[in-house]
Amino acid sequence: MLDSCSQESRPLLSIENALDSIKAAIQPVSGTEKLTLKNALGRVLAESVYSPINIPRDRNAAMDGYAFSSCGRVDGQAFMLALVGTSWAGRPFQGQLQAGQCVRIFTGAVVPEQADSVIMQEQVQVHEQSVYFPADTRVLQNIREIGEDVNEGYCLLAQPKKLTAVDLGLLASAGVDQVTVKRQVKIAHFSTGDELTALGRPLEPGKIYDSNRIMLGGLLAGPSYSVTDLGVIPDNKQLLEDSFIAASKNHDVIITTGGASVGEADYVKEILQNCGKVNFWKMAIKPGKPLAFGKIGQCHFFGLPGNPVAVVVTYQQIVAPALRQLSGAPLAKPLRLTATCITALKKAPGRQEYQRGILSQDECGEFFVATAGRQGSNILSSMSQSDCYIVLPRECAGVPAGDKVIVEPFSLLI
């Protein structure tokens, strides 16, 4: 489909085809390193991890109470047992439990070998060294068996799992203190443009502050990435080409913002053709059409548009999945919800649009979404105020209030 708002002579590349092209072009990094659990959060496992022990290792109590043997008990009859000791968490009862005896026990404490039941402490009466059990005492309850959670040799986590805080807790519970993970992806990024001014300096006429570099640095923050900020490169063709080549020699990925369009000072695509390879340029999305993807030597290259909202959209929809694949993490599509649009939306057919929206949910669990305001690719304020994308297909020609739309909550984006 041609974009009805542009002068393109041939159909623009769909976002689906763009992602397929990237997926075919990228292989995960091959290097690995061994890290302690304290340093492994968010990293991608390079080797699966197997449990060296049973979890739990010993039978233990699921609650505070009294441990006893059900042998000889008669259903529906109350009974009394002699209290002969205590099993504490970390300090098991050392004796042998005999017939007619019980022990005080605390949550997580080892259950004596002769016991098969634990009763909650609130259900019994204790007088000196005698414990009175009610007629409705339930037996064979409240004991965690050996290996109930994990058996020795069980695969705790399979590579290429991206490690969460809960994953680290699971590994620690098995006594695992180190993991082998994929090395970090080395990323260089910089802004291009004569109009850019560094923060802290006064603005001259026609200049703007370089917000893209700060924003992209935040988007790239993550334990699987080693990020180098190379600053601002002016609109100088030779300087840009030299910078691209130099960065490609010791990074896995280069990301630039600006210079990817068709203006006289937009050199990114031309330079990429001269010193590397262009896989594609321009996509049927809005904002973010002039995105270039290619390679310089062994380094992948993403030339993002200069408008700030287009930078965010193309990063989240195109670059982030690519970096995830490069890091070795499992691929996943962003989760989407269906919501009722409570404001009318304008759109021309031709490109898939990612409009900024504000999502809400009523007491019945129904989702509703409203526009976050002006949708220009330079309007960063509405991007800041929004919490989701309203995803409008290429063929869509606008949405009246009350229609159902697809939304991607920012909190669920990969």
UniProtKB/TrEMBL annotation:
Biological or metabolic pathway of the protein:
Cofactor biosynthesis; molybdopterin biosynthesis
- EC number, as in UniProt: 2.10.1.1
GO molecular function of the protein, one example? molybdopterin molybdotransferase activity
Please provide the Gene Ontology terms (biological process) for this protein: Mo-molybdopterin cofactor biosynthetic process
Q: Which reaction does it catalyse?
A: adenylyl-molybdopterin + molybdate = Mo-molybdopterin + AMP + H(+)
Q: Where is the signal peptide?
A: none
Q: Which UniProt keywords apply?
A: Magnesium, Metal-binding, Molybdenum, Molybdenum cofactor biosynthesis, Transferase
Q: Which cofactor does it need?
A: Mg(2+)
Pfam families reported in the protein's UniProt record? MoCF_biosynth (PF00994), MoeA_C (PF03454), MoeA_N (PF03453)
Q: Which InterPro entries match?
A: MoaB/Mog-like_dom_sf, MoaB/Mog_dom, MoeA-like, MoeA_C_domain_IV, MoeA_C_domain_IV_sf, MoeA_linker/N, MoeA_linker/N_sf
Record NCBIfam families: Glp_gephyrin, molyb_syn
The family note in this entry says:
Belongs to the MoeA family.
Question: What function does this protein fulfil?
Answer: Catalyzes the insertion of molybdate into adenylated molybdopterin with the concomitant release of AMP.
Q: What is this protein called?
A: Molybdopterin molybdenumtransferase
Source organism per entry reads Candidatus Methylobacter titanis
